[in-house]
Amino acid sequence: MAFAPMGPEASFFEVLDRHRASLLATLRIGCGETPGRGTHLASRFEDSVGLQMVPHCTTRKIKSDSPKSVQKFALILKILSMIYKLVQSNTYATKRLRLIKMHILHFHRDIYYTDSQLFGNQTVVDNIIDDISCMLKVPRRSLHILSTSKGLIAGNLRFMEEDGTRVNCTCGASATAVPSNIQGIRNLITDAKFLLIVEKDATFQRLLDDNFCSKMSPCIMVTGKGIPDLNTRLLVKRLWDAFHIPVFTLVDADPHGIEIMCIYKYGSMSMSFEAHNLTVPAIRWLGLLPSDIKRLNIPKDSLIPLTKHDQMKLHSILKRPYVNCQPFWRKEMEMMADSKLKAEIQALTFLSSDYLSRVYLPNKLKFGGWI
User: Fold this and answer.
1) β partners of residue 221
2) What is the distance between the alpha carbons of residues 351 and 292, in angstroms, rounded to a whole number?
3) What residues are labeled active site?
4) How far from chain centre, in Å, is Cα 108?
5) Residue 280, SS3?
6) Which residues contact 301 (CB under 8 A, 6 or more apart)?
7) Which among 232, 286, 225, 312 has a CA at the least distance from the CA of 264?
């Protein structure tokens, strides 16, 4: 069943449709195929997937008879035993320290609270679970471990959760929470022309308040509320794999926003062993671009000086191998480095309170203002 069109006339989406046709052509000639997964912790870059583990590198060894690693070895065995019992019994842990049969897990928190003295802190548990996932070469989901979701989704999308719950994400006053079991959702239905990833929850909520989804219908909006959680990344990847619609990012014109965009597009070092399930290299940078700051004559008092940490982050990103594949990205980042200034998306309110949803985004989408 299709959605009734509510937004602009079909001609509005001509450039978007051509962009999608180009993406599909790229996939047909094989550039979008996923290479085999890596086997080690260090990372390299694959243009079609993102960060991947290199086949040969120095590995870390954990030994039961080594005083330096005996505690970590014990922790790994403890968590493996818990995973084994849960998988064998098809039971799942909740945050309330009791095991019940359900399909959405918050397992790592349960493990921590089961024996907090043994594990020390939550980060230790998270790192061990990542190590186990990498060691066994399976995603967390196969270990019956799903992270808690913090993301939101709105727009032209319907689906059914694993327990049969029907979800309609049509824009309203509030958005829909990203499910905790992305693998379990089915019957995805959309007519969306594009997917917009919004960095910050405040910007996402403002777009909702401005009725952006309906005005630009059919479309989908997603936010990971800053650095995206695993399930938000999985959902974006799932939507790309299912529909191959253009995916754009709306982030602050600062190193932190660029870093978040890179996580969606190319992945992160910590999760490079699962990049093939998480990354969407077809993602494009829609805004806020550093060049937009000058083009729109945003006053200097609306901008923020780069901190030393910002400059270090920006320098680090510029050194990454995938930036060599993105000359336009590099140009924008070099522009930021030269000016030593950054801007939040909210700087556009200098032009008008609804400039982002009424002018900036519609023009970018209609005339191909992405890189």
Assistant:
1) 154, 196
2) 13
3) 113
4) 20
5) coil
6) none
7) 232
Residue 247: other Cβ atoms inside 10 A:
25
Is the preceding omega at residue 246 within 30 degrees of 0, hence cis?
no
Contact assessment for residue 326 and residue 50, using Cβ atoms and an 8 Å cutoff: no
In 3D, which of 47, 19, 44 has the Cα closest to residue 33?
47
In the block, tokens 């000086």 appear at 305
Amino acid at 121: N
Cα–Cα dist 247/12, whole Å = 17
Does the pLDDT at position 132 exceed 50? yes
Q: What is the pLDDT of residues 247-261, one digit of tens each?
A: 999 999 999 999 999
Q: Cβ distance 47 to 325 under 8 Å?
A: yes
Which tokens sit at 274? 């699962």
One DSSP character per residue, 120-156 reads: -SHHHHHHHHHHHHHHHT--GGGGT--PPP--EEEES
pLDDT of residue 246: 96
Per-residue DSSP letter, 356:
I
79 residue type, one letter: I
CA neighbor of 207 nearest in space, from 151, 154, 283: 154
CB 32 within 8 A of CB 26: yes
Q: What is the mean pLDDT of residues 48-67?
A: 57
Q: At a CB cut-off of 8 Å and minimum separation 6, what does 196 contact?
A: 219, 220, 221, 222, 248, 249, 250, 286, 361
**C-alpha span between 344 and 144 (Å, rounded):** 38
- Of all residues in the chain, what percent are helix, strand and coil, respectively (each to 5)? 50, 15, 40
d(CA 49, CA 281): 6
More confident residue, 72 or 329: 329
More reliable by pLDDT, 173 or 258: 258
